[in-house]
Amino acid sequence: MNFSSIKQMGFLGLWGESVDAVDFYTAKTERLSRDISLEREKITSNPKSIMAAAFVSFKTRWGAAVCAQTQQCRNPTIWLTEWAPEPRDVYWENLSIPFVFLTIRRLIVAVAFFFLTFFFVIPIAIVQSLANIESIEKALPFLKPIIEVKVIKSFIQGFLPGIALKIFLLFLPTILMIMSKFEGFISLSALERRSASRYYFFQFINVFLGSIITGTAFQQLNNFIHQSTNEIPKTIGASIPMKATFFITYIMVDGWAGVAAEILRLKPLIIYHLKNFFFVKTEKDREEAMDPGTIGFNTGEPQIQLYFLLGLVYAIVTPILLPFIIVFFALAFVVFRHQIINVYNQEYESAAAYWPDVHLRIIVALIISQLLLMGLLSTKEAASSTPLLITLPVLTIWFHRFCKGRYEPAFVRNPLQEAMMKDTLERAREPNLNLKGFLQNAYIHPVFKSADDDKIDVVMEEWEEEPSLIATKRTSKRSTPLSSKHGRSSFSSPEANKERSKT
Amino acid sequence: MNFSSIKQMGFLGLWGESVDAVDFYTAKTERLSRDISLEREKITSNPKSIMAAAFVSFKTRWGAAVCAQTQQCRNPTIWLTEWAPEPRDVYWENLSIPFVFLTIRRLIVAVAFFFLTFFFVIPIAIVQSLANIESIEKALPFLKPIIEVKVIKSFIQGFLPGIALKIFLLFLPTILMIMSKFEGFISLSALERRSASRYYFFQFINVFLGSIITGTAFQQLNNFIHQSTNEIPKTIGASIPMKATFFITYIMVDGWAGVAAEILRLKPLIIYHLKNFFFVKTEKDREEAMDPGTIGFNTGEPQIQLYFLLGLVYAIVTPILLPFIIVFFALAFVVFRHQIINVYNQEYESAAAYWPDVHLRIIVALIISQLLLMGLLSTKEAASSTPLLITLPVLTIWFHRFCKGRYEPAFVRNPLQEAMMKDTLERAREPNLNLKGFLQNAYIHPVFKSADDDKIDVVMEEWEEEPSLIATKRTSKRSTPLSSKHGRSSFSSPEANKERSKT
């Protein structure tokens, strides 16, 4: 019996009766497991714990496709059917929000986001006005001797005004994510998609427009309301060429350096070593400290799209900016490819559900660049060509509508043809396939899951027969309870269709 | 043998060999019938006459509902399924337009409609400048003595400038209908719905805004582009109270008098007597001359909605206008109720497909009235209350979105619950129902129909067993080859689903 296995029963384990630590913790674990299973049983049998939402599995993909695409009930708000997200992708908290509350929440979030985008400077300005050196000296007089040191004072004076803004921008993705969660999306991928759209809009207003016409979003809004409609593209368009050097700097400082920081991963390295030093005791702790997390599409993707917008806007006006953009994209491609394959864990498989959003944002960027070009040209000698340029946005919008009709259904619906083909193929290949064992535990609330982890892993093994072309970290078991490589779950798990019945 | 049965074979029946007219026309009819049936057979057997569209009938409503609501093919543009319109409602010419052409046509029509709305005054102004008395005298010098008569001259001078505009406005519904047809809608009801939206927009721009800010739509557009965004509602809002008397006159002259003219039906009366005098020879001719046609939703409905808009806009600003509106609506209700029940033939049954459009236009009218109220108040002493009023349009838009989610599916989809209920009920009530005989000739191109008219009528009789509460002209056989009263075809004929396969 060595020292580490002795446990004292008193305060903080510092004194009291000594017992064998292994015995003590074994007993404690057993007691806790019993409590957990009791609590689980209580929840399972309690009728109040029943949610107004269910995951329904179908024997055929055809049945699931029909059920997901049709309206079941006369009242379209009390029984909604939609494709279930992947099991890993489910956001359990939002599963059963009634339709009326959903629409109210959407309204609240829309209003809140409007104020966030255009008025976020007001609270920050207030904080900044409070957080100057004089008020700090007044509130915390004992700091006065330190602050009065000249180096520190000038550092604080230079740093303090920006710090409130920096902190806000650091928390912005989190705020947007909370908004999306409040809005009631039922999958992590949908949450991230919505956050990404909002982040892009915020960046467009506050970084792109904010840099070009220099002023807070609120002042811009005020300007736009009081300016005539055809003056707006003129004002912006005319100042675009002047801001080219600023954006070249921005691309280098934010873009290139950002990509470099991405591959360095300095922050995770420091955090890992801190964790390693203070918290890591077992091998499992170390593994958890090593966990790189997910790639965070909700901030990375809009950032990249902002550079796309910059490229489109400056392509005609100041082509010298383009090489910088190209270098950024080349770097970003190499780095993010590496990061996705070798570093990050994949949290979910959303079957390219991001693409329609990305496409929309590219179209929006195109239209913005065309409008600004029109504004710029109308201030130059080519003013008479401006009306002809109107055909450009009209054709772009038309192209978007065409693509929406032609390609969007591929992301939203599962055609019956494909479902039937796969069903028939499967029936011919594996006539005795028994899905029940797999499906029984596929959609299970994480609270009930932990105990059955091994069981699921066993079932999973059966499903993981396909060889992967590139060895990635994607099948990492810890964060991915279910592999997504198998064909059956490639399209938002066609065999399992979630029915949400709402009251 | 009386005179009327003698036919002369020469030019215009004035000379030549005399033959018995009954024999001659019987022979001619037979020859024509033979030609027609030959031509029909040729078309039926010719593979080039096969359209890339088909009407598919299902054994159960459930099957039809599933097929109409799901995507069949991997490429969503080559095989579209949608609810078939009622047989009477089908617009055969547009049945098989490929998706790409549809989107191109939509673009062309959108651009054309924009120019029609905002630039229609330009050609009219040109015509007006040409059509003055001097140029008429120059072109047609022999009319000079007549024109120089003082009464006629002043009449022409007063009348001529307006006549080009009047003729244009007379043809406007036809132009809009041609646009809708070109756009490729497959049912008459959809054509009329789209024309109605366009007509409403045209009226809103050219009658409502045109009267308030006095100027052609093109000048308005120019103003709006060069005016600051918050000035537009101010300009319009400020001039609204001044125009109240004009709109009261407008309601009386156009609204009240229009309703009175509707019940008088003076124009159809004159046309009937002219036709009766010149063309009517047989009983069938007389019946055709009596035919009142359909009610023409595409012009009547937007007209009524314009009065709704006027009522909403003036409700707060100049409530004295409201009694005039109420009198108009009361009159219109009585008159149109009478006309629909006793006068007009019903061309199709679209199952209230108009309502979503009407609802949207009411919402738009509400938002316009709120914006104009904000504009008006901001010019008065209540300027500081304007920002608070912004909540009104926000809440209105939210209400619209809620209604769209809650009620629109009832107009677009057929819930499986209802389909299944009706199927089960029918199977229990009429287990031996044979639909084939009815469905075989339900969707048949009018070209093939005439010969089988009697046959269809016989089949129809079986279906017309339900008593109607109010005896209307709705079942008029001549223009309505299929009755729409029976429950089975009440929702765009759920038992027959049209599949459009496009190349």
Automatic annotation (TrEMBL), chains A, B:
Q: What is the lineage of its organism?
A: Eukaryota, Viridiplantae, Streptophyta, Embryophyta, Tracheophyta
- Annotated region Disordered: where? 466-503
User: Which GO molecular function annotation, any one, does this entry have?
Assistant: calcium-activated cation channel activity
Q: Which InterPro entries match?
A: Csc1-like, CSC1/OSCA1-like_7TM, CSC1/OSCA1-like_cyt
Transmembrane intervals: 107-131, 151-178, 199-218, 306-337, 358-376, 382-399
Pfam families reported for this sequence: PHM7_cyt, RSN1_7TM
Protein source organism:
Gossypium tomentosum
Q: Which residues form the CSC1/OSCA1-like cytosolic domain?
A: 7-94
Sorted alphabetically, the keyword list is: Calcium, Ion channel, Ion transport, Membrane, Transmembrane, Transmembrane helix, Transport
Provide ranges: composition bias, Polar residues.
Answer: 478-495
Recorded protein name is CSC1/OSCA1-like 7TM region domain-containing protein
Q: Which residues form the CSC1/OSCA1-like 7TM region domain?
A: 105-377
GO terms for CC?
plasma membrane
